[in-house]
Amino acid sequence: MRETFVFNQGWEYTPEWKDEFIAPDFQADGFERVTIPHANKELPYNYFNEKDYQFISCYRKVFNYDPSWNGKKVFVDFDAVMAYAEVYLNGELLGSHKGGYTPFSIDLTPALTEGENVLVVKVDSTERPDIPPFGYVIDYLCYGGIYRDVYLRVVDPVYIQNVFAKPKKVLEQEKELETTVYISNTTDKAQTLDITVKLLWEGSLVAEGTETVTAESGKSQFDVVISGLKDILLWDIDNPNLYNVEVTIGEEGSVRDSFKTRIGFREAVVKADGFYLNGEKVMLRGLNRHQSFPYVGYAMPARVQRKDADILKYELCLNAVRTSHYPQSPHFLDRCDEIGLMVFEEIPGWQHIGDEEWKQVSYEDVREMIERDWNHPSIFLWGVRINESQDDHEFYKETNRIARELDPTRQTGGVRYLEGSDFLEDVYTMNDFIHSGGERILRDPKFVTRTEDYVPYMVTEFNGHMYPTKRFDQEERLVEHAMRHLRVQNAAALDPHISAAFGWCAFDYNTHYDFGSGDRICYHGVMDMFRIPKMAAHFYGSQVDPKVKPVLEPATLWTLGERGGAGVLPLVIFTNCDSVKVKLHGKEVGEFYPAKEKYQGVPYPPVVIRELKTGIWGVQWYDAEFIGIVDGEEVTVKKFAAAPVPTKLEIEADDTTLIADGSDATRVVFKVVDQVGNILPYLNEVIEFEIEGSGTLIGPKVTGLIGGCIATWVRTTGEEGTIKIKGVTTRFESETIEIEVKK
Fold first, then answer.
1. What is the architecture, at CATH level 2, of domain 158-263?
2. Whole-angstrom Cα distance, residue 124 to residue 34?
3. Contact criterion met (CB below 8 Å) for 127 and 82
């Protein structure tokens, strides 16, 4: 039977490479002890040289041979290494891999010895011109290191290499499951095997099927079909029902290998008149996500990756995300499956197309992405074109061919900014940046495609570099930033030929010096790098049924002197409430209603107040109270103080329990608030994080508040116990929170 072990602990690391490192008897004195996921270089928040992490480094791990492995195949599986890796065992080169975003496996069996074994990984994190997305400029950073999980896998010489479980006849009363099982027979003889596929719901057997096959030496594939499936629950955005598929191979009742995966029964297709999920038309409202974080770039563990999916779904109330511009963490995608967040996933690349060697790596990116992720019900579209690249007919003809051959159940797309582009994919996916605050919001899809009829079409980016906005910018800019997202999402939803609109982007991100605001940050997100919301986030967050979560967020700092010309009008309130009552100085001054006629394309338009007697510049200003009304009841209140003063340093952790594995982590947010609980956006005092117990900080211990707040991440050390953390500024000390750490 298969055994899989997490192989993240006990690595030794040095930020250099020498050929002598591969020798089994090399003494790794001076190497640092690290846990995977690991960034080859911890970086500042901003103003750093991206060359700082672009070097060749060495990872070593010593492990002991287990006698139970006798007669077995032993693999080391890397979820991702940036960007080129060579893997040595006991001084012997066993394999290499080009590409920093897709997984690869190395067979350790030929070089394994009894007793102690030394695994060495040479990691080249330079921007090599033979590996996508490199070769020209890139508007994001590709941080170095072994930044995703590593596993040790022990299997029978005849083992399951992969499984593709394909729900069929999804909209019929009796459904079907066709499971393709990929088998590797490393013996020199054909093997007669029973392949058994079980479909389970919450641990209970729903159905099973068995086929007896002959697996010749080498690789082969076989289909097992289970028909007549009744009472199957469909997977959708609101009810993401997941089934488990368990596949075993063996003979005469014995099991030689097993493989488990999760699936959802759903039909997802983009048509010329919109996106359809299980036969129902759904407007996809999404954002683009970079998988990067402050200080450690990509090297965040499962919990943090999964939290991003929760933020997108539950805080920003999205139903879709684009994984710009590369395949992202399996943990992130797993969470998208679990919560019903549709995913458009694409291969690595940004504008540049390289030479033939480069293209061969890109073809492998397509294969490795699809073969890794084809069982995720959340993924509805494969991106097989380099983001915003020029046309290249033969190149993209081949990427589409590979995708369709590997996965005939999903459509292909390819993100471009070109009108009349060579259309080889199933869906024309377009970055439309035409809106710059004026009357023009989006292009007509048929004008873009230059096709005779409308075709399946999605807007995959808008806004972004057209209007970069910092969370601590002036109020007018923050409001306009939010309104641009509202206008485009509204216009997209009103056009029956646009199936989705993905704004650029969810979170601010570090970038190369050629881009961004000069400090190596693109301030394009509706949240900052710490996942703290800007006003634009409140527009997205208001698009949820008030019975799920009432939302009321006035887009204002509530002061007379913030805007040009003074005042707070027009006052936009992002809300899902039926109406909003306003009180000034304790007295009700009016009840206001959403602008439904102007914004008919979004479920919950904002309230826009254009007339309100608020006060006189330099003479009087009032406390304010905004009250959200749903079905005649007061359901939520937002207050503003006329004269805000710093009152408290608040602290909040995303999680209060972590795993003692040395890599698990959680975010802790600190906010300086006024007397009614609002962040003070121009307070930038020094803050020190005081931590003790079974944890350590990711990033600096002493830093500055950014717009009145900041976050840090706390990582476990591998020991059980309790982490205690608090924040201290020149004026305040937060409460101390405790995070329990368990094995």
1. Sandwich (2.60)
2. 18
3. no
* Topology adopted by domain 648-742: Immunoglobulin-like (2.60.40)
Spans of all domains in the chain? 3-155, 158-263, 269-541, 552-640, 648-742
**What pTM, to 2 d.p., does this model score?**
0.95
The encoded tokens of residue 242 equal 């997941």
Please identify every residue annotated as catalytic: 388, 461
Cβ–Cβ < 8 Å for 488, 459? yes
Sign of CA dihedral 548, 549, 550, 552: negative
Structure tokens at 646: 């710093």
The pair of structure tokens assigned to 117 is: 């074994």
pLDDT by residue (tens digit) across 10-53? 999 999 999 999 998 898 888 999 999 999 999 999 999 999 99
CB 76 within 8 A of CB 103: no
Query: Residue 461 forms beta bridges with which residues?
Result: 431
pLDDT of 647-695, one tens digit each? 999 999 999 999 999 999 999 999 999 999 999 999 999 999 999 999 9
> Quick check: 651 and 669 in contact, CB under 8 A?
yes
Q: Which residue in 462, 482, 463 sits closest to 471, CA to CA?
A: 482
Distances, alpha carbon 361 to alpha carbons 84, 132, 358, in Å: 11, 7, 5
Q: Strand 721-729 vs strand 737-742: parallel, antiparallel, or unpaired?
A: antiparallel
At residue 483, the 3 state secondary structure works out as: helix
What homologous superfamily does CATH list for 3-155? Galactose-binding domain-like (2.60.120.260)
- Identify the CATH assignment for 269-541 out of 3.20.20.80, 3.30.470.10, 3.30.450.20, 3.30.70.360: 3.20.20.80
Q: Where are the beta strands (DSSP E) in 274-357?
A: 274-277, 280-282, 284-288, 320-323, 342-346
State the DSSP string of 103-141.
-EEEE-GGG--SSEEEEEEEEE-S--TTSTT-SS--SS-
101: how many CB neighbours lie within 10 A of its CB? 27
